[in-house]
Design goal:
This protein is α/β, with parallel strands linked by helices. The chain folds into 2 domains: 165 residues, Rossmann fold (3-Layer(aba) Sandwich); 144 residues, Rossmann fold (3-Layer(aba) Sandwich), CATH 3.40.50. It is built from 14 helices and 13 strands. The strands form 2 sheets. A 7-stranded parallel sheet has the order 3-2-1-4-5-6-7. Strands 10-9-8-11-12-13 form a 6-stranded parallel sheet, with helices on both faces. Helix 1 crosses helix 14. It is globular and about 55 Å long.
């Protein structure tokens, strides 16, 4: 079977999930992965998967109804199945389609008007597409009249983690658009953060790194080498970074000031499952880190709580794909 996998270009989470699925299904199928080539280089991709540079560069919150990328996709040869991560516009092709989505932009955007919401809801609810979401986070009310399967986390828990070697703090505010960017930069330039870095080693996203060139601050590469050194993280809780923290058993502190409904909803779920703590300010989060003990007992608590998260979502998705 010839499969096209298309990933949203908003942040890294969509591309990472798709890369895991692509690696899983390429053993039995021909897989073409449409995504931002620059971003996908961060992940390990099976050589059998053909990467096609196809960044969908739109402001997802404001212009989620921009489906011009679908017309670009039509220029490529047809596929037996289309798999999309959070892009309902793929339905327009009227082909066999599976869409992974825990939310849709038109459901959470403050810019959405009733007409556009109804238009996209109708597109979803009258389609023959199959929808998949993470059973811990996906909102069932997004899928009223369609096939919807809830699966485990896409990815697995890392084994043999040496908690004694984890000395770093991660500050991850995402690569997607962030209306708090200016406030975050001002905070990173503050004396408070400078004093904090004298006692803690900090990984920070490349986007913000240039604003805090202090001795103990390093660029967050978001690869295995970084995560194995990290024991606690302040995050904007997109599901990409949440998955990474669960995989590596990292304590999560969420910062969702002035963020959209997706991040606030995810933060509440993490708090409810006792695997995340929410803070209204960065200072409060860093103060928490100062008192948090990076020891065996706390590591064990994180491990026990995260065992409640079901895994192997990519295997369930692969089975669904093969059912076609």
């Amino acid at each position: 079977m010839k499969i096209a996998i298309i990933a949203s270009n908003n942040g890294l989470g969509h591309i990472k999930r798709c890369s895991i699925v692509a690696n899983k299904v390429c053993k039995r199928n021909t897989v073409h992965f449409f995504c931002c080539k620059k971003k996908v280089k961060k992940f390990k991709i099976n050589k059998k998967v053909k990467i096609i540079d196809f960044p969908i560069d739109i402001d997802y919150e404001k212009f989620f109804f921009d489906l011009s990328w679908v017309n670009r996709l039509k220029k490529f040869s047809m596929y037996d199945l289309y798999y999309s991560d959070n892009l309902p516009g793929i339905i327009k092709l009227k082909k066999k389609t599976i869409i992974y989505a825990n939310f849709f932009w038109h459901q959470i955007s403050k810019y959405a008007n009733k007409k556009k919401i109804n238009e996209i809801n109708n597109l979803i609810n009258t389609s023959n597409a199959k929808f998949v979401s993470w059973n811990a986070f996906g909102k069932i009310d997004l899928f009223k009249k369609t096939f919807h399967r809830k699966v485990g986390m896409v990815g697995n828990i890392q084994k043999n983690i040496n908690y004694k070697k984890r000395k770093h703090v991660l500050l991850s505010f995402g690569t997607a658009k962030n209306i708090e960017k200016k406030n975050i930069i001002n905070f990173l330039k503050s004396r408070y953060f400078l004093r904090f870095t004298k006692n803690f080693k900090v990984f920070i996203d490349e986007l913000y790194y240039k604003h805090c060139l202090y001795k103990n601050v390093y660029i967050a590469t978001h690869n295995d080498q970084m995560f194995k050194k990290t024991y606690i993280a302040i995050i904007r809780p997109g599901l990409g970074i949440v998955t990474d923290c669960i995989k590596w058993k990292i304590k999560m502190l969420t910062y969702v000031k002035n963020q959209n409904k997706e991040f606030k909803m995810n933060s509440k779920i993490l708090k409810k499952k006792l695997i995340g703590v929410q803070f209204s300010s960065l200072i409060k989060a860093l103060n928490y880190i100062k008192t948090y003990k990076n020891n065996k007992d706390n590591f064990s608590i994180i491990s026990r709580r995260q065992k409640t998260i079901s895994l192997n979502g990519e295997k369930e998705i692969a089975r669904l794909i093969n059912e076609f």
